[in-house]
């Protein structure tokens, strides 16, 4: 399937495949048609995490080039999980990147004269997964990251992304290392129209993580545990929606992860800050999410496997064939699927 | 809007009205991020606010581009969370001494528009969505009577402020009833560096201290829900300083 190689100029052209899991019906639509597919009393839950510029180009003390991609902040807020890449950058396919130089605990990575990281430990799973501590820390770290970091991106894109490209229209706290892109098609005008017809909107913040590292062993263990926060008003909105038999529609798999992690732990969604380690896929029964707006992904990817929590194998295969035949574009700037029973 | 417990981002935060607002809102319990170009002056204000027990952060940057807006908002939100209040207090007069429009270079007008109009536009774009999704937010644009009166030699600045006032009106119309509110505030003449640069001969004793204006603006923030979104208010006529 073809990847969208750049953010769309005209968001109104954004296509939407509606998949009705109840009837098995597939219908080709456009994103603005969402207003006819949801109804008053439904709740859309978005991930309001901003995408931080998580890719840092640097060198080891020996002068070897490395790229460090942040995977997520550790709970102490001081250290970060990160994935090392060798020579090259996003223009090469991830699988084709050479291995990074051997890095041991205590090694230093330098990104700029006044911005560096110390490798605190190296994972047993793979030497490419590390925990680092930055110098400077605190406010100085964020300033340096925003000056020297670039958004994580992949080789199917036609040029370097600007930070603005990697954000949804409602993003604020920089928790995500890749864009929670399912929400990109939700313009503020569309959100206003949804609110006007009585659909509610609420937000969670979820640290959407890296989707691909080029290392099969590491890719197998994705997603890594990801931080999330469910504010009280969102927990209330979910409860009220269920009480009135409205549908909870997650905008993006990161929202599913946050809501279902909370529901699994407590029996229902509560206001909390936590870490989602939940694995979604075949056999997973959602407790709280009734529908999903998501991007289009190819069979064989973790995103795709996750959809088996909502669709049986046959319907997922049919939808994938349909999307391929009709030329739906994949990846973060591509088209969308709406999994929602009529 | 309740100030205590809110997060406020304030541009032009290193001096003048922006700095005074930072002090005032932090004093009332807001978490404040001051955005400005000048690192040292900014650090001094942040230190002063912290020394009086307020929670404040400084983020340095130049609001020339949308990318820079996202960078500064990202840094600010990393430090202080999502903003409930955004104040556009950064502005430039353009070159001083002020000259008539006929003597103003197009590039100079462009520069003034970039700081006074496009900067606030980009920053507001970067936070309005987040405010909309949470159904609450207040965006304040600091205006000037130069936006309304055709003062000679105040062309570039006056035009930029008139346009900013109109952005506020249209934003307010587009987001009417959403919980996100917009106001233009004319602070009147204040005893600031900016005023001194524009009118060095002015009698400084006749100018209002920025701290007094900031206190009045804080009371406007507290009463914001009672004022129609999109209104343009003259701060001097509003209530009493707390």
Description:
The complex is a heterodimer of chains A (342) and B (242). Chain A contains eight helices and 17 strands. By secondary structure, chain A is of the alpha/beta class. In chain A, the strands form three sheets. A nine-stranded mixed β-sheet of chain A has the order 2-1-17-16-14-3-12-13-15. A six-stranded antiparallel beta barrel of chain A has the order 5-6-7-10-9-8. A two-stranded parallel sheet of chain A has the order 4-11. Chain A is globular, with a radius of gyration of 20 Å. With 242 residues, chain B is of the alpha/beta class. In chain B, strand 5 (137-142), helix 5 (155-174) and strand 6 form a beta-alpha-beta unit. In chain B, helix 3 (66-80) crosses helix 4. Chain B is globular.
- Counting DSSP H or I runs of 4 or more residues, the number of helices of chain B is 7
- Strand-and-helix sequence of chain A, N→C? EEHEEEEEEEEHEHEHEHEHEEHHE
Uncertain runs of chain B with pLDDT below 50, 5 residues or more?
none
Q: Helical content of chain B, roughly?
A: 40-55%
Largest sheet properties of chain B: 7 strands, parallel
Number of strands of chain B: 7
Unreliable spans of chain A are none
Distance between the termini of chain A: 27 Å
**What is the gyration radius of chain B calculated from CA atoms?**
17 Å
The fraction of residues in strands of chain A falls at 25-35%
Overall mean pLDDT of chain B stands at 94
Question: What's the structural blueprint in terms of helices and strands?
Answer:
The complex is a heterodimer of chains A (342) and B (242).
Chain A: E1 15-20, E2 25-30, H1 34-37, E3 43-47, E4 50-51, E5 55-60, E6 65-73, E7 79-85, E8 108-112, E9 115-122, E10 129-135, H2 138-148, E11 174-176, H3 188-196, E12 200-206, H4 216-220, E13 226-230, H5 232-243, E14 248-251, H6 253-266, E15 272-276, E16 291-295, H7 302-306, H8 313-325, E17 336-339
Parallel strand pairs in A: 1-17, 3-12, 3-14, 4-11, 14-16
Antiparallel strand pairs in A: 1-2, 5-6, 5-8, 6-7, 7-10, 8-9, 9-10, 12-13, 13-15, 16-17
Chain B: E1 7-11, H1 16-27, E2 31-36, H2 39-51, E3 55-60, H3 66-80, E4 85-88, H4 106-133, E5 137-142, H5 155-174, E6 180-186, H6 193-198, H7 210-222, E7 232-234
Parallel strand pairs in B: 1-2, 1-4, 2-3, 4-5, 5-6, 6-7
Helix pairs in contact in B: 1-2, 1-7, 3-4, 4-5
């Amino acid at each position: 399937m073809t990847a969208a190689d750049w953010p769309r100029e005209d968001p109104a052209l954004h296509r939407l495949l509606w998949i009705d899991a109840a009837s098995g019906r597939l219908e080709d639509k456009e994103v603005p048609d969402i207003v006819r597919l949801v109804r008053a009393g439904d709740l859309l839950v978005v991930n309001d995490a901003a995408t931080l510029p998580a890719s840092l180009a640097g060198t080891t003390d020996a002068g070897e080039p490395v790229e460090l991609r942040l995977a997520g902040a550790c709970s102490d807020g001081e250290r970060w999980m990160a994935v090392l890449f060798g020579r090259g950058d996003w223009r090469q396919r991830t699988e084709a990147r050479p291995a990074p130089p051997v890095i041991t605990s205590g090694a230093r990575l330098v990104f700029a004269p006044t911005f560096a990281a110390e490798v605190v430990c190296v994972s047993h799973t793979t030497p490419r997964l590390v925990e680092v501590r930055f110098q400077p820390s605190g406010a100085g770290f964020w300033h340096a990251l925003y000056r020297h970091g670039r958004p994580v991106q992949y080789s199917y894109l036609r040029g370097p992304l600007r930070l603005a490209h990697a954000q949804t229209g409602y993003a604020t706290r920089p928790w995500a290392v890749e864009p929670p892109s399912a929400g990109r098609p939700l313009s503020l005008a569309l959100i206003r129209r949804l609110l006007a017809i009585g659909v509610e909107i609420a937000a969670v913040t979820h640290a959407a993580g890296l989707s691909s590292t080029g290392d099969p062993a590491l890719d197998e263990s994705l997603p890594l545990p990801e931080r999330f926060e469910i504010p009280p008003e969102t927990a209330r909105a979910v409860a009220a929606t269920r009480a009135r038999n409205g549908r909870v529609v997650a905008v993006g798999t990161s929202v599913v992860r946050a809501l279902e992690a909370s529901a699994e732990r407590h029996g229902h969604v509560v206001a909390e800050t936590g870490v989602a380690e939940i694995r979604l896929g075949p056999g997973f029964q959602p407790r709280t999410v009734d529908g999903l707006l998501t991007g289009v992904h190819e069979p064989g990817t973790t995103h795709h496997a996750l959809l088996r929590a909502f669709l049986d194998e046959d319907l997922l295969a049919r939808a994938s064939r349909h999307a391929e035949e009709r030329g739906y574009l994949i990846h973060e700037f591509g088209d969308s699927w709406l999994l929602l029973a009529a | 809007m309740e100030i205590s417990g809110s997060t406020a981002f304030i541009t032009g935060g290193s001096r003048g009205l922006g700095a005074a607002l930072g002090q005032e809102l932090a004093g009332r319990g807001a978490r404040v991020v001051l955005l400005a170009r000048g690192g040292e002056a900014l650090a001094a204000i942040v230190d002063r606010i912290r020394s009086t027990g307020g929670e404040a952060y400084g983020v340095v940057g130049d609001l020339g581009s949308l990318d820079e807006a996202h960078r500064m908002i990202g840094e600010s939100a990393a430090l202080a969370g999502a903003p409930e209040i955004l104040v556009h207090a950064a502005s430039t007069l353009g070159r001083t001494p002020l000259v008539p429009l006929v003597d103003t270079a197009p590039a100079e007008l462009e520069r003034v528009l970039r700081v006074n109009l496009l900067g606030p536009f980009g920053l507001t774009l970067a936070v309005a969505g987040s405010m909309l999704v949470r159904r609450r937010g207040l965006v304040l644009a600091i205006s000037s009577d130069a936006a309304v009166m055709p003062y000679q030699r105040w062309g570039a600045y006056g035009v930029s402020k008139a346009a900013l006032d109109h952005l506020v009106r249209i934003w307010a119309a587009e987001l009417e009833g959403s919980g996100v509110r917009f106001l233009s505030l004319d602070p009147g003449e204040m005893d600031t560096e900016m005023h001194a640069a524009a009118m060095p001969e002015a009698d400084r004793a006749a100018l209002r201290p920025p701290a007094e204006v900031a206190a009045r603006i804080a009371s406007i923030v507290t009463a914001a829900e009672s004022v129609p979104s999109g209104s343009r208010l003259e701060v001097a006529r509003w209530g009493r300083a707390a």
